[in-house]
Amino acid sequence: MGKTLTFAIMEPPYEAARSTTAFRLIDAALSAGHDVNVFAYEGAVSLTNSKQTPHANAIHGTTVDTEQHPTTKDWVSALFKKGDGQDGRPKLDWVLCGLCMDERGATENVPGPRRGSPADFVKFIAASHNLVAIGTR
Amino acid sequence: MDQNRLLHIVERAYEGTIEEQDDQALWLVAAMKANGAGQQAVILRGAATSYAVQGHDASRFSVGGVKLGHPPRLEEDVAKLIAGGVPVYLVQEDARARGIEAGELIDGIKVIGRKDVADLLVEYSGLLAW
Question: Which pTM does this prediction carry?
Fold first, then answer.
């Protein structure tokens, strides 16, 4: 039977390997059948911004289509498909720190993540078998 | 998971503290306490050892004439955690390396050696490194 893991993340998109590492760990946890809770704190609330738009890359010589650049919201959406809790699949719950969203104007998100607060983080921890906090630098 | 034993390791310092008017990690510790997180503790290491030094004053900060409404008083935030029952440890070697002397620290800080950190880690069920 799968366990329940909680991740706390802080890194905004595109600045460090920490957000990529977090995605890989969450993906692996879901693949292993574990339910995953994510508390997205501070800059991490921008990972799911629905207004993210890929671009062409003149240095690569690519167009938008040929660059094929998934933005971070695409990865999170894919994780939600994997963790929809249906037909025996594990459940992904993703809470965005509401105050962090407000001060960044990061209030438009892809379907899946929900607005919350540190109270949700505390509940996540209480309901989990283990916790990984990936801060920022 | 035993939510009642959480240890926050705070090393990153003064990153965004002006823009936030807070330290993000210390704020979260206080917010979690307010929401029933149970027993937490904090280790200040590296640059964050400065948070225990008396006399922080960002009140004169201004950009284009716009001042902070509530300048961060980080040593007061640390003191409030201590007063609220959150032990705050400080790694002595890291403080010394930054020229911080014992007399400069706020009251209630538990000074430990680097070698003591590992012993502290195993006392807690959840470790959060910020």
Answer: 0.90
